[in-house]
UniProtKB/TrEMBL annotation:
<dbReference type="Pfam" id="PF00501">
    <property type="entry name" value="AMP-binding"/>
</dbReference>
<dbReference type="GO" id="GO:0030729">
    <property type="term" value="F:acetoacetate-CoA ligase activity"/>
</dbReference>
<dbReference type="InterPro" id="IPR000873">
    <property type="entry name" value="AMP-dep_synth/lig_dom"/>
</dbReference>
<dbReference type="InterPro" id="IPR032387">
    <property type="entry name" value="ACAS_N"/>
</dbReference>
<dbReference type="InterPro" id="IPR020845">
    <property type="entry name" value="AMP-binding_CS"/>
</dbReference>
<dbReference type="Pfam" id="PF16177">
    <property type="entry name" value="ACAS_N"/>
</dbReference>
<dbReference type="InterPro" id="IPR042099">
    <property type="entry name" value="ANL_N_sf"/>
</dbReference>
<protein>
    <submittedName>
        <fullName>Similar to Acetoacetyl-CoA synthetase acc. no. A3QK15</fullName>
    </submittedName>
</protein>
<comment type="similarity">
    <text>Belongs to the ATP-dependent AMP-binding enzyme family.</text>
</comment>
<feature type="domain" description="AMP-dependent synthetase/ligase">
    <location>
        <begin position="166"/>
        <end position="410"/>
    </location>
</feature>
<feature type="region of interest" description="Disordered">
    <location>
        <begin position="47"/>
        <end position="70"/>
    </location>
</feature>
<feature type="domain" description="Acetyl-coenzyme A synthetase N-terminal">
    <location>
        <begin position="101"/>
        <end position="156"/>
    </location>
</feature>
<feature type="compositionally biased region" description="Polar residues">
    <location>
        <begin position="53"/>
        <end position="68"/>
    </location>
</feature>
Amino acid sequence: MILDSYRLLSTKHHIITTSQHYHFTTPPPYRPTALYQHLRWPATVPKSHSRQKQQLQKPPSQARSYGSTPRRRIRRCINFKAHIAHKYKQEFSGEEDASNSLWKWSVENIPEFWGEVWDRVGIRASKRYNEVVDATLPMFPRTAWFSGAKLNFAENILFPTVPIDPSSTAVISATEEHRSHWTWTDLRERVRVYAAALSSSIIPGDRVVGFVGNHEDALIAMLATTSLGGVWSGISPDNGATAVLNRWEQLQPTVMFADNAVFYNGRAHDSMSKLGEIVKGLPSLKHLPIETHKLEVANGPAWLDEEFLGSAIDQDRPLEFLQLEADWPVYILFSSGTTGKPKCICHGAIGTLIQHKKEHMLQGDMRKGDVFFQYTTVTWMMWHWLVSGLAVGATIVLYDGSPFPKYLSLLEQNSAAPRSKYPLKALRAIYSTAAVLAPSTFDYVYRSFGPVNLASITGGTDIISLFGAPSPLVPVYAGEIQAIGLGMAVNCWDPEGKPTEEAGDLVCTKAFPCQPVKFAGLEGEEKYRKSYLDVFRPTEWHHGDFLKINKDTRGMIMLGRSDGMLKPSGVRFGSAEIYNLLFKFFPEEVEDALCIGRRRKKDKDENGGGGNMCSEELKGSIREVVKREMSGRHVPAVIDPTPELPVTTNGKKIEVAVKQILSGWDVKISASCANPGALEWFRKCGSEH
């Protein structure tokens, strides 16, 4: 059913839906003649810049390489590198060379780099900036970016700087049963109608929220909101009322768009009871457009959708875009809130826009006419990343329906061979987020999907974008994030705050434009500082991820959350190292696992434990493998079968809360936990061990 769905969506392009958060971008068909040729810089630069090509160390033999993006599709990134080399008189070597790469130049010349990106990717602005950024200032308090510029976020999404045929498809909206195509003209007109109705309901800075699925109306409501200077926050209807109120009551929204039901697994699921609770808990609401059923709103009317749209004072109001400062807030996202109230993370227009366009156009080589799909809900940061594909001129696919858990892993486990049924000639990129793919899955994808750029990517809600990104200039290595993003001064630090080639904390040591503009709500500034800039120094962003940077490939090896780091007998390592062993050596026996370090008051040392469905024989085998492949100090003290693992509503495993529970803390279960019963199981387990 899943593979059939992409054929229904389009006969010209190929799309595969996934739930392990991969996106597939699709150019016109090509012949991948150079896939396994390692592209080494400089390949097509002027001769004056190709004389000092340094010889790099070979990657370790265990790091399997799958080659790079075909040469004819990476001209944009090569040209950008050649442009920088020529303009700034640089003699670059390969991107694996940390000391003499485009990445190195980009993080040592922050204002110059981001100014070049502005011009290269195209930012539509009514007034150009006076200064990119003052690079001498610390990250906190946050410094201004592109000061003096005047622009509008929605205008950049709806009117890309590349020529667009208005009659071409901008959006494909898909459910389990229906498909609809929206041209650029259709999309712009519908945004105009929504903005005309909203214009008398909000003023710049008002918060507009959406309790909505991933469909075209959610996109249109967001674009109408931001065209007027409003700030958008979306949460999908699969969240409970408590989870929604924990977030939105901090925002005091003026308008809420809402779906009265969600449709998945072949049937409708009513949302009205949850919606009633949410509306009662938001006394600031003045307007509630909804598809059916009117609800009582404290300070204004609840409209049926068409009634609201018909309420515009000027039905013929043209589509206009309020010109605002570059850092004007456009989105509010939320931290997971697994151990406390979710933090309200405000992202600005230029930071979101320029970072996304850099990632899509330069690092992902996305182009006008590509078809871009990302499985996501409106809650997750990847929805915003998907929407920005429009700013490139790509066609985006919005899918609202049943999720597909661990899609690539399931295909791998069932030895599915997609190309035996579908040619997939247009498919060229598969991006995986949330967790790095197991090495075996890299092998499977290249066997089964052919010449694609398979890139695990990493970033987060906090930056609404990526620290670890795809790159058309370096090969893909199994088990690694392909490259550190251009302009992102990512480093790996030990507990003393010093760079290390061993495993350590992910830090970013230079300012970057997609840094949140602020935290909304009470004590927002102090929460901001404590969240990112309190661990080392206010000049270094501490992201909370535990990683290792491969000194030979410059790939990022993600090892879990640093606040969930394990440290038995003084050995620091991340849970992902154990997960990789389990999935490599026990793919049939272990469905999933949770590895945490527990240290109670009575414990002399931290001891690790894992949750798996396993027998005593399997427990022994796991211990033997961990001891052999890592060390005796890595062997878990407790291995117990669990009925299920606790996950957030975004599907991420909850490690920190489990660690705290097993260490004897009295942890309140957050509404962001999708299956709170699983945490209760660990509470009981902790009392028995």
